[in-house]
Every structure is written in structure tokens, then in C-alpha cells.
Amino acid sequence: MHVFVTGGTGTIGSAVVTELLTNGHTVLALARSDGSERTLRDAGAEVLRGTLADLDVLRAGAARADGVVSLAFGRDYGSAESLAASIAEESAAMTALGEALVGGERPIVTVSGTPWAPGRAATEADPLPTDGPVGGRGRSVNAMLALASRGVRATAVRMPRTVHHNGQGGFAGLLTETARRTGVAGYPGDGAQRWPAVHALDAAVLFRLVLESAPAGTAWHAVADEGDAVRDIAAVVGRRLGLPVRPVPEETFGPFGPIFAMDQPASSAHTRAALGWRPEHPSLLADLENIQP
């Protein structure tokens, strides 16, 4: 399959590009800079220059491909306004990609977060939130999945709060960055809230499996660790950085503060049973031992 990939140089995207190429697919990847282009070409991908805001470029990439993996997302999370702008940009891009595939029965795999289920681990059957700080992502993913009725094999991989590789990435990575900046490995509340996690290399395998065979209109969970307590995550970060570990206000984490404070474990039992996905790389707490002081 010739696959058009956006976001192919990120923590998840770079692993997905390698996974696809290693398993016999070819890749056309969106590159926004000379550095991204070099990285993608070195990996073995063909490159299409443009940004997530270049909707005509996205349509052209989709037209040249047998399938699409949509991973790109804005890099500015410093405020609620910038996060909302990134979500709006992603939504417009997903609409353009999806419309370009209508009627051809070609696959597109998009990404979202795992949902919240009160008092239990969320499952693949739980709906995405369509309100709150990231509700726009839920609405755009639902719109993409609805394209199943128009001849698009649209699917979604729901990612946990932390996608990690060599001690970096995801919400645990943001917690680490905040600890370096503030001098405290902090967590909101009592730290008992749980975050699910997955190693980027395991997530990449799931993206490939979903692209290759998942039915239209379905959602899947890339969850290896159902939920680690945030205070346990912070304890490893603090020990690796030589910093104190203690509670801090939600506001310390900017627009992500309310999300950081939520208890949000998630299960991938259905995904594993239906697609044969088996995570095999280090857990989050083990991988955080790779944080460099």
C-alpha cells in the first residue's frame, strides 16, 4: 500500500513511518521544513512539502495514496487559545483528507485521545468527549468516522495520555519539561489519578494493523499500561532529575491542567483480541528511567 502520512517526524509518526516501510508499504510523507524532509528521506519515505494548513497539498497527497495516516498536530500548547487553534487546524485538515477519499473505499486512520469513563477504565465502546478543552478533537474524529457511510474506510486509533520512547513524549514528557523549568517534579491533586500509556514502537504496530484491516467506522485503543498513578510517574521524574516531588496547582501545567488532574485509565482488551496486537516494549515507568539528568 502507498500511504500518505502527516506528522511523520513526531514521536508517533516517525515510528509509524518506519513500521510501514519495514512491513512492505511505501510512504509519501508531509514535510514542513528542510530538516523534516531530510529526516523522512533518510528513513526511506517520499516527501511532499507543505504544512497542515495547506489543504490543497493534503488533498493532493491523499489523491496519490492508497491510504492515509493522519497524525500531524500543532506544536503550540502554551495557552487555551493556542490549543483551540491547533485543534481547529487539525479538524480542517482531517475534513480535507477525508473528503479526498470519498467513494474509493480507501482507508484513513486518524488519532485521538482515550475517553473518560467514571470509576472504571475506558473501553473502545465509550464515546469520545465532544465538549471541554479537547472536545473539538472528539467532534472531528466522529465526523471522520461517519465517512464510512460515504465509501471511506475511516478508523481511529485512540492514544493514551503518554506515548513514550526513551523516556520522552506525551504527558509524562510535559511533566518532565515542567519539572526542569520549575525545579519541582509536581503533580496536581493527590496524584492518585491514573494515566494510561504506550511505547511509541508498540503504537506504530497498531496503526499499521488498523490501516491494513480494521473495518470502517471503528475505534481502537493503543493502550499498553492501563493506568499509572501520576505521583508514581512524578516520583521517577524527580529521582532522575534530582528534584523534590510534591503536589502543585493545576495551573502549573497551563491548558492541560484540568486534564492532568483527571483519573483516566483505559483498557485495550478488545483491540488486543480483535486485531492480535501485543505490546512488547518497556512500560512507561521503566522507560522513564532513560530520562537524562
TrEMBL record:
<dbReference type="Pfam" id="PF01370">
    <property type="entry name" value="Epimerase"/>
</dbReference>
<protein>
    <submittedName>
        <fullName>3-beta hydroxysteroid dehydrogenase</fullName>
    </submittedName>
</protein>
<dbReference type="InterPro" id="IPR001509">
    <property type="entry name" value="Epimerase_deHydtase"/>
</dbReference>
<feature type="region of interest" description="Disordered">
    <location>
        <begin position="113"/>
        <end position="133"/>
    </location>
</feature>
<dbReference type="GO" id="GO:0005737">
    <property type="term" value="C:cytoplasm"/>
</dbReference>
<feature type="domain" description="NAD-dependent epimerase/dehydratase">
    <location>
        <begin position="3"/>
        <end position="215"/>
    </location>
</feature>
<dbReference type="GO" id="GO:0004029">
    <property type="term" value="F:aldehyde dehydrogenase (NAD+) activity"/>
</dbReference>
<dbReference type="InterPro" id="IPR036291">
    <property type="entry name" value="NAD(P)-bd_dom_sf"/>
</dbReference>
<dbReference type="InterPro" id="IPR051783">
    <property type="entry name" value="NAD(P)-dependent_oxidoreduct"/>
</dbReference>
